[in-house]
Design a protein that fits this description.
By secondary structure, the chain is mainly alpha-helical. The chain has one domain. The chain is 75% helix and 0% strand. Helix 2 runs antiparallel to helix 12, helix 2 runs parallel beside helix 13 and helix 4 runs antiparallel to helix 10.
């Protein structure tokens, strides 16, 4: 039934248009602010962030396997192309897991809105990768967009700590380390959509591979740090309803959007020669949504330099997505 619905949607011209791709990227990107909110809030509630991802990985792998078996939505690409595509998403998710751990630590020390914006500003790198390696068209307007995004990074770096806990320079080091990992992860996650050979790997299989990478890295992460104190924390967290609320919220949006919007939207954008703009659009949307959430929900004070950085970032996003 699920695959029939996807096939029906694919037959509608709108779902093969650039407009669908852009709308899909904005919706998915805006929903990502939930990840930032959870990873920043979990430690404050005594929840180990890696357990949120581990629980999510277990749920995603199990759910994706069930959907895959029910729909028989197996890959139509060659075994080699399928393996390489799945491996790429698997590794990208391992890197994403590590990035989120750095982000969670940074958010315990510094301003959450600024940290989120710094890390997500890695959006410029998959766009540059698309220009260098995959023929995404470079224009002066897009060049100006890249310049503005880099300028926004500088402004974010000079933002003073307005959080309750002063982490000095440590939160900035963690944030920029997370940005470097995000740059690698975003390039890897975008790459398969450029190759025709990978197009036969359905969204469900891609989601399963990504969830497997998250689960694998979560197990390794906790195993390396395992001792009696950590084991006691894990047992305590598992009994905490808050952990399961976090997992449920993230997986609801993550899985539904991955199946219906994320990968189909990335494929459509790549078909129209705009694959390098997927992450800029998604991340730009989540920067704006998370900044608003940090003001309204987290009650963080926003400083003039942060407003300037946000406006410069939005301006860069608009320019980088232009086709002229």
């Amino acid at each position: 039934m699920f695959q029939v619905l996807l096939d029906f949607l694919d037959s509608i011209p709108f779902f093969s248009s650039v407009a669908f791709g852009i709308i899909a990227m904005v919706i998915v990107g805006s929903s990502w602010c939930l990840v930032g909110l959870v990873m920043g809030d979990a430690p404050k509630k005594g929840i180990e962030p890696s357990l949120v991802q581990m629980g999510g990985g277990i749920f995603s792998v199990g759910f994706s396997l069930v959907i895959l078996l029910l729909t028989s939505a197996y890959s139509t690409s060659s075994p080699k192309a399928t393996f390489l595509t799945c491996l790429t998403y698997f590794v990208a998710s391992m890197i994403n897991f590590t990035m989120l751990q750095l982000m969670a630590k940074a958010m315990q020390l510094g301003p959450n809105g600024v940290i989120w914006s710094i890390i997500q500003s890695a959006l410029v790198f998959p766009f540059m990768g698309g220009i260098i390696f995959f023929g995404v068209e470079f224009t002066w307007l897009r060049g100006a967009g890249i310049f503005l995004l880099l300028a926004a990074l500088v402004l974010f770096a000079f933002t003073k700590d307005n959080s309750k806990n002063s982490g000095g320079i440590k939160w900035k080091l963690l944030a920029f380390g997370g940005m470097a990992l995000a740059a690698i992860q975003q390039n890897l996650a975008t790459m398969p959509s450029y190759y025709e050979a990978a197009r036969g790997v359905p969204s469900i299989v891609r989601s399963l591979s990504a969830a497997g990478g998250t689960l694998f890295m979560a197990i390794i992460w906790n195993a390396v740090q395992m001792n009696q104190e950590r084991w006691a924390q894990i047992r305590k967290n598992v009994k905490n309803l808050t952990l399961w609320k976090y997992i449920a919220v993230l997986q609801l949006f993550g899985l539904v959007f991955a199946y219906t919007l994320l990968y189909p939207g990335m494929n459509v954008m790549a078909d129209h020669g705009m694959g390098g703009m997927c992450y800029p659009m998604m991340v730009g949307s989540c920067i704006v949504s998370f900044t608003l959430a940090s003001i309204w929900l987290l009650k963080e004070k926003i400083r003039p330099v942060q407003i300037a950085a946000l406006l410069v970032c939005i301006g860069g996003l608009i320019l980088i997505c232009t086709r002229a």
